[in-house]
Amino acid sequence: MSISTIVQMLGEGALTSLLIFGFTLVGSLPLGLLVAFGRMSKLAPIRWLMRFYISIMRGTPLILQLFIVYFGPFYLFGVSMGTDYRFTATLIAFILNYAAYFGEIYRSGIESIPKGQYEAATVLGYSRTKTFVRIIFPQVIKRILPPLTNEIITLVKDTALAFTLGVAEMFTQARAIVSSQGNLMAFLIAGIFYYVFNAGVAFIMERVEKAFAYYHE
């Protein structure tokens, strides 16, 4: 099998990996912010619920969470979701998992902002919402970009775990080609894809970090 044929076959899996990556970010980044707010809530039940949720998501393997989301409806409620549910279950598990990590990153960033900035904004007549959006959040983004970048890079590699539910992402395609052809070329090409993809993510995040450099501590 020629290299061009292998690349073409891996391209389909690469598209699936990109979709998992993109949908996970779109879902988990805003959900993580809600988790952070819940974690800092003045209402004890909400605060403890978010702590429990974060503890479960960070304390158990993502691969186990994938299995629970996929098989849970049938074994818990007797509902058969069908094979089309594989991709949806993958996205649900990834979003819930990464929202917990992003939530803690957001929380650490928000809590690192001096309380005096809130008080100064109040004196200037800013509402609590306007204070957060215009003053606090840009500084939070600047502070959390390094750990956020690390998690996003990890997400790129974690997309390979989708193979456990039979989702034909890049690693699944590469493994199938290697098994049928008896050589490691597909793994090598897949590795280059992950490396280049992560390099692109790191470059973009570095540019974003520079864009927020004008927010002085």
Question: How would the blueprint of this fold be written?
Answer:
Elements lengths: L2 H37 L4 H16 L2 H16 L7 H27 L3 H9 L4 H31 L11 H12 L3 H27 L6
Give a description of the structure.
The protein is built from 8 helices and no strands. By secondary structure, the protein is mainly α. It is flat and about 70 Å long. The chain starts with a helix and ends in a 6-residue tail after the last helix.
> How far is the N terminus from the C terminus?
56 Å
Shape: flat
Here the CATH topology equals: MetI-like fold
Return the CATH architecture. Answer: Orthogonal Bundle
**Assembly state (oligomeric):** single chain
If you average the pLDDT, what whole number results? Answer: 89
Q: What structural class should be given to the helix and strand makeup?
A: mainly alpha
Percentage of residues in helical conformation: over 70%
